[in-house]
TrEMBL record:
<feature type="region of interest" description="Disordered">
    <location>
        <begin position="130"/>
        <end position="180"/>
    </location>
</feature>
<dbReference type="Pfam" id="PF02566">
    <property type="entry name" value="OsmC"/>
</dbReference>
<dbReference type="InterPro" id="IPR003718">
    <property type="entry name" value="OsmC/Ohr_fam"/>
</dbReference>
<dbReference type="InterPro" id="IPR015946">
    <property type="entry name" value="KH_dom-like_a/b"/>
</dbReference>
<dbReference type="InterPro" id="IPR036102">
    <property type="entry name" value="OsmC/Ohrsf"/>
</dbReference>
<dbReference type="InterPro" id="IPR052924">
    <property type="entry name" value="OsmC/Ohr_hydroprdx_reductase"/>
</dbReference>
<protein>
    <recommendedName>
        <fullName>OsmC-like protein</fullName>
    </recommendedName>
</protein>
């Protein structure tokens, strides 16, 4: 099975440090949420991961097409929904003064199709957890239903049916938005 693993270790009372190849990423909660503010929160890191993956794909597409890119910027916005609190949609806004508008539009379309993180969020996945005792791997617990986990649910009749189907299928539209 082809896979990727990132290891995290505790740092202080509220932070974790993720070891990623030769890099370290500290994640924590802000002081206002009981943390020590040693790094961004997980949700902020998720938005950065979506944006970083998207822009990396954007840059690769520009290089492959010999489109000059200088000073490109992106802004990634997650819109919260409740029960449970999570991102209901993510929007990526890209600007690049050096790119002709038609090239910029095309590069964004290519990045939408090629970004691994966006594709993962669009399709959804099971999220599991396990416990390791004394250094031995534990058994994964059952998947925790989440907005990204496809769960068989009864579909309501009538007008609610389309809404339920739309909410059950996260999409990534041509506007640069991942929506659920």
């Amino acid at each position: 099975m082809d896979q990727m693993t990132v290891a995290l270790v505790q740092s202080g009372q509220t932070a974790s440090v993720a070891s990623i190849r030769d890099h370290a990423v500290v994640m924590d909660r802000p002081s206002s949420h009981g943390g020590s503010d040693a790094g961004p929160m997980g949700g902020e890191t998720l938005l950065a991961a979506v944006g970083g993956c998207f822009m990396s794909t954007f840059y690769a597409a520009a290089q492959a097409r010999s489109v000059p890119v200088e000073g490109a910027t992106s802004r990634v916005t997650g819109v919260f929904v409740a029960n449970p609190r999570r991102f209901g949609s993510i929007h990526i806004e890209v600007s690049c003064d050096s790119c002709p508008p038609a090239d910029l539009e095309h590069l964004v379309e290519v990045a939408e199709r090629g970004c691994l993180v966006a594709a993962t969020l669009r399709q959804g996945m099971a999220v599991t957890a396990s416990v390791t005792a004394s250094g031995s791997p534990g058994q994964p617990r059952a998947a925790v239903p989440s907005p990204l986990t496809r769960v068989d649910r009864p579909t309501p009749p009538g007008p609610e049916r389309q809404t339920a189907q739309r909410l059950a299928t996260p999409t990534f539209g041509g506007t640069g938005a991942i929506t659920s």
